Amino acid sequence: MSEKIHNTSSKVSEAEVSSKSSTHAVKTKYADLAVDFMHTYDAQTSEITPEQDKKLNRKLLWRVLGLTFLINMIMYMDKATLSYSSISGFWEATGLDQNKYNNVNTVFYVGFAVGQIPGTYLIQRFPISKLIFAIAFLWSLDIFLHCAAYNYAGVIVLRFFLGFLESVAIPIMMTTNGMFLSQHIRELTQPIFYASCMASPIPIGFISYGVLHAGASIGDWRVLNIIIGGLTFLLSILIFFIYPNNPLEASFLSTEEKVWVVRKIQGSSHQSIEQKHFKRSHAIEAFKDPISWLICGFFLLQQLANNLPYQQTILYEEMGGLSNLNSTLVTVASSGFAVLWSVAAAIFLFIFPKTTCLTIIWSTLPSLVGSIAAVALPLSNAIGELGAISLAANSFGVGWICAFGLAQTTAGSSYTKRLVRNAMVMASYSVSNIISPQLWRAKDAPNYVPAWVVQIVLSFTVAPSLIGLVWYLLYRRNKERLAALQENDTVGYVKNEEGELIEVNIAALDLTDLEDKTFIYPL
What we know:
The protein has 523 residues and is mostly helical.
């Protein structure tokens, strides 16, 4: 399908449009935000050359993906402070034990779930650059306030609000990446984006190592929170000045480059750039679509394993023979493996494009093997256990981020359906993570066999099987659509305020995948 939008200057009559049963027409306010911009600049902008395309892609990767990568890494460092604080005196200072620690992790995701409804509304109603700035700024304040925590109740409140603030951070950043990056680049860079949170234990691990080695009088855990909170505050300032709302408002792009970006997104991804009107019918369709629930099922089951990365340090301690300092270094090393695994997934997607579903499935295999080994090996086999835990904890995240991308890219060009489906899968993610910490019960220590069994069966076997079913259903839809697709089916019309009908790429109409039969699902 051509990435060039059908020219904006072509006018037709309503009778001509209505005579074509497969043609869609919408009012300007319900179409893509980019319609007016393209109406003004598209006709006068030349086609992009291969050299210009490479230069533009490099700019977008550094300015957009690089920024979202940095934000995600630092925010994940914030979230991980609790785990690293657990080995630097935080438990003793606040009265936590294993079960209370699990409850604190659960409460974080209660806040995460509560934040989905207001967060989804705010994404569609307000500029996303201002929203992500507010999240980062308030997040830094919450981390600073951890330094004042002195009891279990205080920690509960702080972690609830941290989860509430984070609830829509990933959807915002994934939405931003989707606004700027073409379909293929977006697919192959999803594991790279996820590597940001997998890489976060590397800097925070070394910071924690240094803090533990220094032995500050105010408490090592307070120093750690001050450092990480300070980094997040600086990040919020950076966001305020350079985070883009959308390609049309991106100051680092020329007018010509903005046109090229819109053509890329509507042509390759078959998606709208942005739409600020909530469409009730699209929201209802998101809830009725079985694909939504299959992807939600994947998140619900797979994320039962998500407490494992936070449990790593504690598991290393209970194995014996590892000091707090050394267990931190082991966590850093296992995070290095996670980054390499993410890069391997990106290389696979580069060599074999349009294989997102397959990538979700095969990237889960090391976690399955590692979990089986972890529960089968005796704790006395320290090297084997270390390898098994690291393998289990640091592989399945690639599938998580690819599934999140799949939820967005299979919703058609509809901005509302994408956001509602985002909220659905993140709610499933929240429920699963509310349950996940409770699997690691103190009475099951040190082997935690029930937790491992749940992960082996549900997280690493049944969950990827659901993605296999998604692939099968969408493959059948694609087969039917490709057989019926005709060249003029990709044309749509927007009715402006003067009542004129303007010919556009159908992706600019902000339709759902079920409304637009020309939409071919990226699998």
